[in-house]
Amino acid sequence: MGGAAEIRSTDNSPTKTSQDPAWITKGTVTNIDLRNYTVDVEGEYEGDFWEKLQVATPYFHTANGEGIFAMPEVGSICLICQPSDDKTPYILGFIGSFELEHAKTANLEDRAGEAKNEEEETKASVKTPTSTTSSGSTTQTTSGASARAGRPFLNPGDIMMQTRDQNFLVLRRGGVVQIGATPGCQSIYVPLLNHMRHFAENYDVTTPGGVLSWVVKRVENDPGGKAPVLYRLALRDKAQNDKADIQIRMGHVDDDIRYELLVSPEKIKVEDGSDTGTPKLKMTINKDGDQEFEMKGDLIYDIAGKREIDITGNDTLNVTGIRDVTALSIGHTAKLDTTVKSATRTETYTGFRTINALLHMLGPAPMEPAVLGGMLATWLATHRHEGPGAPTKTADAQKLATIFSTRLLIPK
């Protein structure tokens, strides 16, 4: 078929629809049907009453509840729209009631934490725009009435959702997003440098890999009001494991400990951090800076540079196995120096001590070779001195030369 499209319905024809104009009136919600998403409304004028009205939303689709919607509360003031086709009216939107200005100062939101009254908060909240975008001021008023109705101050372009309990979602101009249950429990997303800020008294993150908690332990009976703080991170080796392998606790671990590192494979309860086994490694640091270190495995240091340790107190080393100290060198003679200044060093051995070195120097210079006692005793036992004076035989001189040590030097 050509030409105009075929007319299949005349429902919108002026001859079949009402000629009455659409109208809007104000009312108050008196009842809510939670199951069917409808409300009952009492009109502003006596005798006006509507049952089972739908609430219009910015967007909604009947397919699987898609859209943006809210459940009204009893007492909210709404606008009822009666369509011109005389079909069922619906709630077009909600408005606030006009009240005397400053009547709801108790509901002020002190975002900056410094505002003393509504006037100071207004100055802190409303800034002069730097572009040609819309602007406004809460101080511009022509009457003593206000429709604020407890809502916080917003800048032009800000969009906010809030319940009566003050939990909120704010989309601010400039890209800032605020989500919170209270001013002290919220997250702020700042597009500048992609910055995220979280405000909370207690903070918990739970994942299959473990938990992170940062809590303030409120003490009900503490007259000073002091609240200990504890940070805890527990990590599983496998997400399927029931218990964690490693845990770090910092802050008020107990009355003395301020830091604890614990390694106990599949023995740490994720819920409370208690260890159900024998830890492979445990390190603690107390409030005085004292450190305790316990480990069941090997400790290996690979240091490419210099190691320097200064000890002003005692140094105790207990070794139940073999202690091996090796000084290696590349391109020059190895050197292992031990210096004891202004002190006495005592070494007690209940077994043998073996020192294997090319040369031993005992004491300060000048020094000379030590005499080998065994060789000297043998020479004295077998030597016959034939006359006064030093031995003159070449054989005796050569023998005496072998009696002196080539590795041990002693002071003269």
Provide a descriptive summary of the structure in words:
The protein is rod-shaped. Among the domains are: about 25-95, Gp5 N-terminal domain (OB fold (Dihydrolipoamide Acetyltransferase, E2P)), CATH 2.40.50; about 150-200, no CATH class; about 215-295, no CATH class; about 355-385 and about 390-410, no CATH class. The strands form six sheets. A seven-stranded antiparallel sheet has the order 15-16-17-18-19-20-21, with no helix packed on it. A five-stranded mixed beta barrel has the order 1-2-3-7-6. A five-stranded antiparallel sheet has the order 10-11-12-13-14, with no helix packed on it. It contains three helices and 24 strands. Helices cover about 5% and strands about 35% of the residues. The chain has helices at about 120-125, 375-380, 395-400; strands at about 25-35, 40-45, 50-55, 60, 65-70, 75-80, 90-95, 100, 145, 160, 170, 175-180, 185-190, 195-200, 205, 210-215, 230-235, 245-250, 255-270, 280-285, 290-295, 360, 365-370, 405-410.
